[in-house]
């Protein structure tokens, strides 16, 4: 009888523990999805106005503010871990920094204190667009005009925006886990590939030039036209961009 009772008690404990874990995970997921819903409208608006990826900014906000639950977010409306002061307002917080040899140390720093969440979002966009005084192009790899994808833009922030060398990978994990790339579906976040494709289509559909010698239409006979991007990425861009911007078009035979 005792062993039977003990077995039933253990089963009950495991069941309760399992329910606790499930409820805890569900609650955590709810916190993250609620945060995304709360931040979605202002982040999408500001990112489109500044030609940035909304998915990257959302992932930054999630990571830097612990989904809006960090002391910095609660006390300073600072959702991106931006240091300094804003209109003379700041707050001192403990933080962890990674040294050049990969060692994590605990320290304290002064962070900007914003009057509103929107002010924090707008200031982060301003930083990504304008860089620093010494290097205005420091974060130019995050611009939609300079990167092939949100993933590339996120990797451009590794070892530049944060001391954490895994920063870009962490952002990309959040983008993938929560399908944040759906926030980038807008004309302002059209990729370089799309822009080049549109330009190629425009040029090929334009009226054909005539031959100056005999005033006859020029002939294109099954020639392969190769168009490559001549975009120059800033030297400070930390991520590697493979030569993906190559389009091969088979021109139609004309008479």
From TrEMBL:
InterPro entries linked: Glycosyl_Hydrolase_73 (IPR051056), MGlyc_endo_b_GlcNAc-like_dom (IPR002901)
Region called Disordered, residue ranges: 202-222
Domain of life: Bacteria
GO terms, molecular function: amidase activity
A Pfam family this chain is assigned to: Glucosaminidase
Domain Mannosyl-glycoprotein endo-beta-N-acetylglucosamidase-like per the UniProt entry, residue ranges: 24-184
Keyword field: Hydrolase, Signal
Leader peptide range in chain numbering: 1-29
Family under the similarity heading: Belongs to the glycosyl hydrolase 73 family.
Name under which the protein is recorded: N-acetylmuramoyl-L-alanine amidase, family 4
Source organism (scientific name): Lentilactobacillus kosonis
